[in-house]
Amino acid sequence: MPATRFDRAYYDRFYRDPRTRVASREETARLARFVCAYVGFLELPLRHVLDLGCGLGAWRDALAVCAPKARYTGVEYSEYLCDELGWEHGSVVDYHSDRAFDLVVCQGVLQYLGDRDAGRALHNLAGLCQGALFLEVLTRADWERNCDRRRTDGDVHLRTGRWYRTRLRPHFVNIGGGVFVHRGAGLRHFELETLDGGG
Asked: CB 3.0-4.6 Å disulfide test: which of 1, 39, 62, 189 passes with 29?
């Protein structure tokens, strides 16, 4: 995927213009409050948060309120946004850090990758995360039944939810709401709190 695709026009359409944006900052803030509350319930301290595909920084702003002690790292593939907002340039496929993160956020990114790179990205996410992953990806079923196509970029790779779950399962337990707990995190969750039986 050429980085030039994610230029000013892309972000104006899908993130800045209230008539065409996929979500508002208020909606992202509500989502961040949910994720913070859920991982707080699991007694996972949020010291370091990685946002891969951080865009305009809506998660950074929301986490400053609901997890003010967390150190935030924003990584973005768009060269335009890195120049504009000063993000660290990188890709979810091969971003490397010497630190593992308590929470990794990857929202609306993987559908832009082909199968091979999306698989590599999921493996990379498992290596970067030591606690919880929040993952949101547009799937084929979402495109067909759930999203507003006037506000959603359809020029993407649409895969099944099963495709993602199969690749996440060796590393993560799906605890619902787009939140996945790393199997090595040592966090307790009861069987009916999980969507895959917890095994």
From this structure: 62
